[in-house]
Amino acid sequence: MQSPLKGIRVLDLSRAVAGPLCSSLLSDLGADVFKVEGAPHGDPARAWGPFDDDVSLYFSSVNRGKSSIALDFRAPGSIDLIRELIAQVDVLIENFRPGVMAEMGLDPEELRREHPQLIISSVSGYGSIGPERSTPGLDQVAQGMSGLMSVTGPDKKSFYRLGVPIVDELAGMFSALGIVASLVGRERGGEGSQVQTSLLEAGISAMIFQAQQYLSLGTVPEPQGNHHPVISPYGAFKAADMPLTIAVGTAKHWVLFCEMLGEPDLATREEYATGALRSANGIALRADIERLLGAQTASHWLSRLREMGIPSGPIYTVDQTFADPQVQALEMVQHVADDQGRTVPVLRGPLWIDGVATEVRSAAPGLGSQGEAVLREFGIAQERIDAFIGSGVLHVRPRQETT
């Protein structure tokens, strides 16, 4: 695989999900990522379950392809060491609250003056301006405040969070996009940039047409359960044995769909004659469709639907997802060695370059497991490294005694 970011060095000070996912995506594309964690406990996500032995799978899922260095940020000399590392990287990633970096002695504006080519990526809860700029933010808080939860659930009385930290993930993806754009701009003769986003902005951005209908029409959207709010039939429908997703998005597909169900007259009923009418009469339409789908299994209907080119698919549990032949063909799961010498399954990133899927370069690192090697890679002499260990700045795993 071509590695578009080969040779790019990233220093990652971020924790939890958004920043770490961003740096993992950069690693997938070839960047060398050095994760700096606060000792003695490291990234707080290391304490979040579920666990495989004592390894947090929450942490592992967004920290593939990195080296870990553990520093005691409060120890004298630790911030100076971080600044020394920053001087040799292309990208710095952080997700502290606005102002915290400056309090630590790592003011982004000062760093940019000292290193004009440096790209700094910052993710906050609410943004760098406004009355809540210093308020801590987390994914579900942003899901609620952005409006995402207000359109997710069975009805307008029940708001649901999404089953994954989607706002964290989006903020990480948006940050990676901003970093790559800044690298392109710098390559064309510019300087570095400070790329900023927030969980709140990422969540609002994800509202797309739901937000736009409010801005243009003043319509406040409500939850639609498992059915599309403006296209019908488009949602989850029960067959004889299990539900499946069916998306009938065109007039041609609507006619074919009704023929497939064995009731072609359904397509010409007055209440279903147009897309707008089908959407307005969605509850009755769903009842008619499920009455007909109940005659056969989901696999029967999926085969027919796909023959006709109507978008459709099963609704899987996670084990069914990974057992599906299409998912297996994509080789989304790669097996790599972790710091304990075990071979572990890791979900790869979703990108392909020149027909080749991105590789998982390494499993998520143990806390500080590459600390000495990282400092040597940055040209720091062993006697200085030993001094950092002795003073408590650098935390490393106990060295194995040789016999």
From TrEMBL:
Pfam assignment, any one: CoA_transf_3
Region forming the signal peptide: none
SUPFAM superfamilies reported for this sequence: CoA-transferase family III (CaiB/BaiF)
Domain of life of the organism encoding this protein: Bacteria
GO MF, one example: CoA-transferase activity
Record's keyword annotation contains Ribonucleoprotein: no
Keyword field: Transferase
Protein name: CoA transferase
Organism from which the protein derives: Microbacterium aerolatum
